[in-house]
Amino acid sequence: MDFFASGLPVVTDEAPRTDTAASDDDDEVVLMIKELLDTRIRPTVQEDGGDVIYKGFEDGIVQLKLQGSCTSCPSSIITLKNGIQNMLQFYIPEVEGVEQVIDDDDVEKEANST
């Protein structure tokens, strides 16, 4: 009952997170990466108005897309390498690095903003 009294919306326009949902194809390493993103990394990035979207894991490299205020932040690469990469490597030795994924839409938005 407390939730209804809080005045918060019962239904929001936000789509449910699917990038870190467990899939039948995920191995143990990918499941650990997704869990760390959900429990430790994403909440911290969201506090600064951004978000991190999991795109894949291949040959030791975690592919992530930065969203929100992180896309235009000059410190985003530092956050990606010093923050996210270090945490993933600390907990998951199979992670060799992290790279930012930039969609065509992001390139177009950047070009239009200049």
Automatic annotation (TrEMBL):
Cellular component annotations (GO), alphabetically ordered: mitochondrion
Official protein name in the record: NFU1 iron-sulfur cluster scaffold
Domain called NIF system FeS cluster assembly NifU C-terminal: residue spans: 33-99
GO MF annotations in UniProt: iron ion binding; iron-sulfur cluster binding
Family: Belongs to the NifU family.
PANTHER family: IRON-SULFUR CLUSTER SCAFFOLD PROTEIN NFU-RELATED, NFU1 IRON-SULFUR CLUSTER SCAFFOLD HOMOLOG, MITOCHONDRIAL
Organism for this UniProt entry: Columba livia (Rock dove)
Any GO BP: iron-sulfur cluster assembly
Pfam families listed in its UniProt record: NifU
